[in-house]
Design a protein that fits this description.
2 copies of one chain form a homodimer. With 380 residues, chain A is α/β, with parallel strands linked by helices. Chain A is 41% helix and 17% strand. Chain A contains 15 helices and 16 strands. In chain A, the strands form 4 sheets. The first copy, chain A, has an 8-stranded parallel β-sheet. In chain A, strands 1-2-3 form a 3-stranded antiparallel β-sheet. In chain A, a hairpin with a 6-residue loop joins strand 8 and strand 9. The radius of gyration of chain A is 20 Å and the shape is globular. Chains A and B meet through helix 13 and helix 14 of A and helix 13 and helix 14 of B.
Chain lengths: 380, 380
């Protein structure tokens, strides 16, 4: 691997800001990666995603292997060309979606057999196949296959699952092989058990990855438990590699994780909320379906430069939401992604200037206000 | 009225090219007006609509009076500001949608009472109210209220309906009053009866309008009948006013009507087809859901400059159609509107250069090819 580098520019407490360099472009960290699940960030054109400030998007191995298929994407020139996004792409390994979306899962040492949620067809995902798919897609950052146990689970169940995930991590790394310019990330598992998380982190470090993700969080546990788990993991990850908290989260989740040293995030919330009239603003979250917006000529967020905020009123957004117009999803998604990217930019600047604590206090105040929305957890 | 002017630049046979000037911008004719039914051209942002080459969009009185309501739009600063489209807007009078969408219509001399298709609420539309609504919306070109009889109908029924429409046209014109910079168009009715069409045109000319529409066509009759009806109408309309064929049509319908001297069109086809995977191309129409596109790396239309054609493959468009992704509607709608605007630009140029017959032969050849699509008729 020659083209993938991570450089730290500044720290503020445990928080860090830096740059991941890839041949397809730089990723400023802390970074938020919009979901491009099935080859599109829903309701957005690629250049619009870029306009929000995104450096990288996420693609889902599970969705893309089922439709249009990894070999087909490869024949068509790879995922970047296919979806019109020439900047970096991170792909997950499919493990999480197999657990959350597919039917009839059967997990063995070899891998996981499951039925597609689209057409019921049978598929098999092993660490080797998961890595092959990501290579065929042309992913810049490829994730190991892990088992994502359903919660609640006993300590013994989590420990057994973790052991399998660690054996799969080793096989994934071997299958990734040598791919110049691309990176392979391990995934820390272990539920909410600090000693299992520590063991997982140490075993992954021993294998050696280009970056380290924390998986199995944002699956319904309280925020405090998520933060405690991060506190247990972070000291056991190498400081010179990027750290990625998978599937997180709401703005205050992200802020808390950045404070603990996380560098990368992905989450369905801003895009899914955008399709259900839920908007994040600097005055707090709000639901545009609410009748109180019907004659509000003000902008959605006076401090936002996105088209939804500069060219339309809250009254218009309310109207197109009520009328189920596609433009409602287009505009509110754009705004939410712009909001998230603005948040990440503010965090990066605050870290670089050593004033993260003050910035966080502001954000916490905004998100402590009564919320109109409940966007749900971070799973796809 | 001071700011509304129509200037003819060239004719080629009966076909004409010119410019309608309004304080909100010029409309190059022959013009195609995308439907902005409920305050949005579906799946498009306003600047994208403009990028396709559109000079004017259409708003629907019926939809807007029900939601968000004309008085509300007026309080919010008018339809242009509300929907973020500062160029000209033409509004219909609601008559056609009352017939096609609402329940429990009761037509009297005074007007039409009906129930909303949205919530069943009762509403009343008279010529005076139709014009008041369009004034409240701030429409640049306002249409008289007409009765649109259901077909098939006897000659006696059409004649009776026409007489009512002509009395309503007179009341509409009176209600329009004096609105500097805005125009009021009459609507020729009379079914497919040449003598009734002639009578209607003459009566409207006698009242005196800023432009003349032909209504009650593109409601299922054969194309030849539509063209025959136009042939019966056109000699009886003043040459110095714009002529608008309502709800038309497919490309070959438009070409045939331009040949007969029509200046303005609106139709749901390009936008509705865009949401159902149906695309117009210079090689003929096609359905992107068809599996033959699954590995086609070529562009949708090699001669089109829209984003769908320049940044994505047919294979990608096929994929996002199959996956029911919003981007499919966004891209194919954009392409279809660009295709329609390119067609209008080609027609304008051909007329100006006196070579319309040759241009029409090319277009007819394209649209004589076996079609994958059946976009239905031109009604909303």
């Amino acid at each position: 691997m020659t083209g993938f580098r991570f450089a730290l520019h500044a720290t503020d407490g445990a928080a860090r800001t830096g740059t991941i360099t890839t041949p397809r472009g730089e990723i400023r960290t802390p970074a938020f990666m919009p979901l491009g699940t099935a080859g599109t960030v829903k309701a957005m054109l690629p250049e619009q995603v870029r306009e929000t400030g995104a450096d990288i998007v996420l693609g889902n191995t599970y969705h893309l292997m089922l439709r249009p298929g990894a070999e087909r994407v490869a024949r068509l020139g790879g995922l970047h060309k296919f979806m019109g996004w020439e900047r970096p792409i991170l792909t997950d390994s499919g493990g999480f979606q197999v657990m959350s979306l597919s039917d009839l899962r059967k997990i063995t040492e070899e891998g996981v057999r499951f039925r597609s949620h689209i057409d019921g067809s049978e598929h098999f995902l092993s660490p080797e196949r998961a890595m092959e798919i990501q290579r065929l897609l042309g992913s810049d950052i490829q994730m190991v296959l892990d088992e994502c146990p359903r919660l609640p689970a006993s300590e013994a169940e989590i420990e057994k699952s973790l052991a399998l995930s660690m054996r799969w991590a080793k096989r994934s790394k071997a299958a990734f092989g040598e791919q110049p310019d691309r990176a392979c990330f391990g995934i820390v598992q272990g539920g909410t058990f600090a000693h299992l998380r520590k063991r997982s982190a140490e075993e992954l470090w021993e294998i050696g990855f280009d970056g380290y993700a924390v998986g199995g969080l944002a699956v319904g546990e309280p925020q405090a438990v998520m933060f405690e788990t991060l506190d247990a993991v972070m000291p056991h990850l190498p400081a010179d590699r990027p750290r990625y908290l998978m599937g997180v989260g709401k703005p205050d989740d992200i802020v808390g994780a950045v404070l603990r040293g996380i560098d990368m995030f992905d989450c369905v919330i801003p895009t899914r909320a955008g399709r259900t009239a839920q908007a994040f603003t600097r005055e707090g979250p709000l639901n545009l379906r609410n009748a109180r917006h019907a004659e509000d000529t003000g902008p959605l967020d006076a401090h936002c430069a996105c088209p939804a905020c500069t060219r339309f009123s809250r009254a218009y957004l309310h109207h197109v939401v009520k009328a189920n117009e596609i433009i409602a999803s287009m505009l509110i998604t754009w705004h939410n992604l712009a909001y998230y990217q603005d948040l990440m930019a503010d965090l990066r600047t605050a870290i670089a200037q050593g004033r993260l604590a003050a910035a966080v206090a502001e954000i916490a105040q905004v998100y402590a206000r009564p919320a109109e929305i409940e966007p749900g957890n971070g799973s796809v």
